[in-house]
Amino acid sequence: MKPRAVVLLSGGLDSTTLFYRLASEGYALHGLSVDYGQRHRKEMEFARRTAARLGAAYDIVDLTSVTHLLTTSALTNRAVEVPEGHYEAETMQLTVVPNRNALMLAAAFGVAASEGAVLVAAAVHSGDHAIYPDCRRDFIERFQAMQDASLGAHIELSTPYLDVDKVAIARDARRLGVPLADTWSCYRGGADHCGRCGTCVERAWAIAQAGIADPTVYEDPGYWRQVMEEPAVALS
Amino acid sequence: MKPRAVVLLSGGLDSTTLFYRLASEGYALHGLSVDYGQRHRKEMEFARRTAARLGAAYDIVDLTSVTHLLTTSALTNRAVEVPEGHYEAETMQLTVVPNRNALMLAAAFGVAASEGAVLVAAAVHSGDHAIYPDCRRDFIERFQAMQDASLGAHIELSTPYLDVDKVAIARDARRLGVPLADTWSCYRGGADHCGRCGTCVERAWAIAQAGIADPTVYEDPGYWRQVMEEPAVALS
């Protein structure tokens, strides 16, 4: 029987690539999307599709009752505008949901423990280190130590992209044959990717850097070049 | 302005006493009950009442969508009978919700971070150490270390009852003038405490050991003496 892995699967480029990677490594997969009150559920439709395509289990964990108490974040508070530009911009601080990774991982480890999984995986990467303390190695190592004590058993926390950036993930996606058109990154939930929000800019940049012809339809396909070549635009 | 503390407040004897203790120490309190799919919501009514009495904020955090995935526990799976007897009995393993404290504390720290609280408190005590790894000092210390890394800031995890048993908590309740009749322990959600489930037995025993006249109405008021004096009864 295949060893079982629980994967935080948002439906974006990073976690979808991670999902394909673990499938290729022979794990029986259980994808978990976390509903923390995102402005839209579009990502989750893509996550569900990915899980179905790979014959994996899939569930949505509803943490909205926690995050509705976390009133400071742009992602969960619809009164706050989603900032444009790239992640380095100070305004992106608004997209921080306090303690989000701890919450999502604690849920994933509970599920993993209850179904005898050997591994929990998350697609944190170095591009998130600057703003998000809960995407850094120090956090990941301490979380693992905490989980070992919590469960009185070892379930591995796997974060294979921890020390690489989104470009390396895009290259891994190419290697694994991940259908990029079936991943969703945009913070806004329009018919197509907007091309202007932080995740769109980062996505388009990473795919281009990886030398892949980007199949994504962006409403504003040229914006990311402007931002990445002239950061002052985003910061003005 | 008073420093703010977020407290996991189930409505039981332990957390209610902790709530009174922190109020007496001058904190502005925010009580959080966690709905993890308990068989009844009676505890939460008591928690809400306690918070109201002390002029504290109060919220229920709904984690049922996580715990419905955790199918092994008697607390969340109504098809499994609640075992009788005291906690040491092996059957009480059934009442373990995997990773429950990690989940509840991660939620509490998210709330604490978002509202500028300086402290998160939980009423774990030594009586829970034998069965629950996530009630032991090792877990608590690693959880604090993880949270410091997660938030990039220190919010104290306070567990003043970590090294003492429920008798010491009952004594603290007496010292603080906690109205014991306004706390609820029974796993079953009847009109009165059943007197036979693990928490009822432990409650009645601790209150008696602390030399307090127990105001609790038990359906079977003598059962706890039988169990605590002759453990074979519970194990048969």
Describe this entry's structure for a reader:
In chain A, helix 1 crosses helix 6 (166-176) and helix 6 crosses helix 7 (198-209). Residues 72-80 and 87-94 of chain A have low confidence and may be disordered. The first copy, chain A, is globular, with a radius of gyration of 17 Å. Chain A has one domain (4-185): 3-Layer(aba) Sandwich (Rossmann fold). The first copy, chain A, contains nine helices and five strands; from the N terminus they run E-H-E-H-E-H-H-E-H-E-H-H-H-H. Chain A has a five-stranded parallel β-sheet with strand order 3-2-1-4-5, with helices on both faces. In chain A, helix 5 links the parallel strand 4 and strand 5. Chain A has 236 residues and is an alpha/beta fold. The A-B interface holds A 59-63, 65-67, 69-73, 97-103, 106-107, 109-111, 113-114, 133-134, 136, 138-139, 142-143, 145-152 and B 59-63, 65-67, 69-73, 97-103, 106-107, 109-111, 113-115, 133-134, 136, 138-139, 142-143, 145-152.
Helix percent of chain A reads 25-40%
- The number of helical elements of chain A comes to 9
Spatial separation of the terminal alpha carbons of chain A: 55 Å
CATH class of chain A, anyone? Answer: Alpha Beta
Structural class of chain A: alpha/beta
Biggest β-sheet description of chain A: 5 strands, parallel
> What order do the strands of the largest sheet of chain A run in, or round the barrel if closed?
3-2-1-4-5
The number of strands of chain A is: 5
